[in-house]
TrEMBL record:
InterPro entries: NAD(P)-bd_dom_sf, SDR_fam. GO terms for molecular function: oxidoreductase activity. Belongs to the short-chain dehydrogenases/reductases (SDR) family. Gene3D superfamilies: NAD(P)-binding Rossmann-like Domain. This is WGS project CCBQ000000000 data, contig 00099. It holds the Pfam family adh_short. Keywords: Membrane, NADP, Oxidoreductase, Transmembrane, Transmembrane helix. It comes from Kluyveromyces dobzhanskii CBS 2104. It comes from the Eukaryota. The chain crosses the membrane at residues 245-263. The keyword Transcription does not apply.
Amino acid sequence: MWEEFDVTTLPYYDPELDNKVALVTGGNSGIGYYTVLHLYLHGFKVYLGGRNSSRVNHAIKDIKKEAKARLRKDIEDKHSNSLITRKTGKLEYLHIDLTDLSSVEKAATKFLAQEDHLDVLINNAGVMAIPYELTKDNFEIQMQTNYISHFLLTMRVLPLVKVSKGRVITVSSVGHHLILVNCKPGSQFNYWPSMFFMWCRYALAKTASIQFTKMLAIKNPDILCMSLHPGLVMNTNLFSYCTRLPFVGMFFWILFQFVGYLFGVSNEQGAISTLKCALSSELSPEYDNGAYFTTGGYPSKPSHVANSLDNAASTWIWTVHELRDRGHEV
Ligand SMILES: NC(=O)c1ccc[n+]([C@@H]2O[C@H](COP(=O)([O-])OP(=O)(O)OC[C@H]3O[C@@H](n4cnc5c(N)ncnc54)[C@H](OP(=O)(O)O)[C@@H]3O)[C@@H](O)[C@H]2O)c1
């Protein structure tokens, strides 16, 4: 078992003086929810990128309430008023639907109009093991949601990340190891039985996310780009499709609970890896650019397919061409 990292050792900022800004996709549930909560507690103005206004606004309300309760408890526990000066940041909803490239463009344009810098971009949103489907941009849905739309979003807001010499964190998954040989993100395993290959399509997208991070780091040595596996967090909505299937859903539910019992971490512990990458002053572009981390924020090594620079370069080129073909020059 890993030793839990204490997020209160990460730096706290004054929202007015330091003006730290973060953008987190999928911040309304699961791991993203706790990522936002802690960034907010650390004084960040956080944009929650999400597709459903009522879900995101509901999460914003809950996070504010939770943050207030935690600050009060900290003050009581420590019998000190030193925490009274600790200020929470701000929370804003940014509409973005990752299955739609035009929505990504709109979100980026809105963000660029509102902010002049971005300290931390967290590409967190994702879907896992859902049936084969094409988006209106004609990409396989897991590939676009998990990878391609985050690629486009990152490229659009990158100038603001460079202004603050900030960080780009991309949430991948240990599941990327399912891809054993390099295959183009365009391979959609179209005609193969869905139940197994829906996991492979997820793995393919998460492999591409790691490759993207490696290339981004090489191309931008002045900022810090990292990817990570958050841990096995079995109580998020990520598993909903499988557990709601008729008949086999119960089998999946039992399997996930069992795996979670043996190897799982809580939703909040799942955010630790992201938070460490986003805030730790021990990480620097010089030594950590392109690195991959695992549960609890420990450095790790991705699969040989994800780690290969040749594969990363060809995935990058493929993505740029696919986006260009759809009218999105990057
Ligand atoms: N849980 C794990 O064990 C685990 C393990 C490895 C990696 N991960 C990765 O961790 C990240 C967070 O997952 P989670 O476990 O916290 O799952 P989750 O609770 O399902 O959160 C996923 C988030 O992504 C958002 N999202 C999905 N599709 C979207 C779209 N088209 N446009 C905008 N937002 C969209 C969801 O929004 P809605 O609420 O609107 O659906 C939700 O906020 C994912 O990238 C996942 O692959 C998780």
